[in-house]
Task: inverse folding
């Protein structure tokens, strides 16, 4: 059988994971990226054991571990006192329960590792090449970029939340502004007293806002994401330079570990957070969507990139399993992934309500449940297992 030729629009974490997995399965892969340069905005990413299973199967887990930080636990904290409301062990605990670690990485580090591995496996990455549309033929798909066109057996739309491929597949559909903005920033740990931020995945929960902070790059940097509910988002662009004084004032009166970190920070970015209701389909003939193009989600489960990583693996194995019927391969991928991605989208949305409670009665009930979660591990596991206990490498093994 002739070598399959796969076209991928988008060299984000999802597109590169798919490219690497496909190339390792013997396909010829061309990735088209609209940006002329691959520069990732400085930010952290949490990669749970579910994503680490895929990284391990692709042979890049040790490279990731070498630049990551392994947190002791996930801590949900009261926004003023900083007291832990819910504590879930991560270090050693996730490895022994789920077979892989829970790690914090710099997004640019993960991206660079994926890019290097994909290129080493033979993937060609075309920079400054946006894919605008596609055309189906009986024996091929054509990806169009301005005057240029590229012919392949399959086209994967891994072009993020504003996906052009999705727009053609399903018609123009607006992404929905979720009413949340996120400030993101990175601070050198050396600017703060040692241990200022506990070595955990820390989440301070307050009315209508929450604050996440953790170490990356072996503890050299502290990453933060500060979320605030805000009705208006009028800017054309979805991310922009943030105003540090506005950010500090939004978190005035919070635990001194939060305010101290913000005092030490010089610059941040501000994002409007958008999502999209579940799509009616992710496939059209020889074309499939993946990652944020298929299922954008709020970052309140820290699972968006991890879902894109899982998608990339499953898509590559579905294509290998149905070599002689590629449309069947794409449908099998959609069937395998749709329910899980939709469930995680919903959990992410539900967490917005859980984290930002404003009434003292609701907060009291939530905190009582958190207390049970801390002291009765089985209660916490019933929630965590459905997210972290899934191993797509085992469920969709390499042929
Ligand atoms: C505040 C915040 C915190 C987050 N934290 C986490 C976390 O801790 N853990 C986690 O797993 N996830 C997290 N996420 C989610 C995660 O960042 C995304 O889900 C993930 O990056 C999606 O990857 P992707 O490859 O699908 O899309 P993207 O990363 O958006 O990549 C799409 C790529 O396609 C390119 N592109 C776009 N249009 C075209 C075109 N027409 N032609 C060619 N190329 C094109 C883009 O330039 C880009 O390179 C967070 C998100 C936010 C906003």
Result:
């Amino acid at each position: 059988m002739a070598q399959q030729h796969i076209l991928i629009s988008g060299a984000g974490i999802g597109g590169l994971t798919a490219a690497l997995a496909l190339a390792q399965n013997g396909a010829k892969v061309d990735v088209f990226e609209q940006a002329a340069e691959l520069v990732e905005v400085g930010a952290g990413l949490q990669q749970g054991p579910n994503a680490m299973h895929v990284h391990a199967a692709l042979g890049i887990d040790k490279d990731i571990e070498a630049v990551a930080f392994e947190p002791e636990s996930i801590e949900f904290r009261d926004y003023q006192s900083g007291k832990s409301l819910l504590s879930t062990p991560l270090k050693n605990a996730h490895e022994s329960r789920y077979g892989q670690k829970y790690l914090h990485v710099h997004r640019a580090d993960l991206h660079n590792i994926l890019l290097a591995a994909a290129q080493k496996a033979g993937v060609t990455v075309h920079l400054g090449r946006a894919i605008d549309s596609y055309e189906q033929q009986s024996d091929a798909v054509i990806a169009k970029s301005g005057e240029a066109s590229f012919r392949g057996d399959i086209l994967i739309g891994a072009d993020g939340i504003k996906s052009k491929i999705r727009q053609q597949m399903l018609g123009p559909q607006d992404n929905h502004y979720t009413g949340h903005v996120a400030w993101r920033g990175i601070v050198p740990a050396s600017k703060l007293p040692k241990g200022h931020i506990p070595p955990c995945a820390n989440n301070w929960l307050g009315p209508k806002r929450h604050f996440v902070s953790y170490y990356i790059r072996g503890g050299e940097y502290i990453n933060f994401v500060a979320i605030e509910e805000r009705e208006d988002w009028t800017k054309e662009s979805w991310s922009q330079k943030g105003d540090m004084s506005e950010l500090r004032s939004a978190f005035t009166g919070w635990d001194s570990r939060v305010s101290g970190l913000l005092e030490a920070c010089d610059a941040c970015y501000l994002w409007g957070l958008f999502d999209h209701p579940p799509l009616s389909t992710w496939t059209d003939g020889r074309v499939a969507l993946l990652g944020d193009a298929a299922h954008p989600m709020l970052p309140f489960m820290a699972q968006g990139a991890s879902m894109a990583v899982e998608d990339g693996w499953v898509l590559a194995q579905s294509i290998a399993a149905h070599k002689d019927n590629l449309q069947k391969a794409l449908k099998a991928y959609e069937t395998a992934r749709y329910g899980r991605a939709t469930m995680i989208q919903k959990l992410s949305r539900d967490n917005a309500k859980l984290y930002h409670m404003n009434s003292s009665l609701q907060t009291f009930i939530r905190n009582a449940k958190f207390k049970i979660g801390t002291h009765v591990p089985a209660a916490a596991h019933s929630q965590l297992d459905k997210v972290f206990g899934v191993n797509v490498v085992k469920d969709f093994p390499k042929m």
About this structure: Residues 71 and 199 are 6 Å apart (CA to CA). DSSP finds 13 helices and 19 strands in the chain.
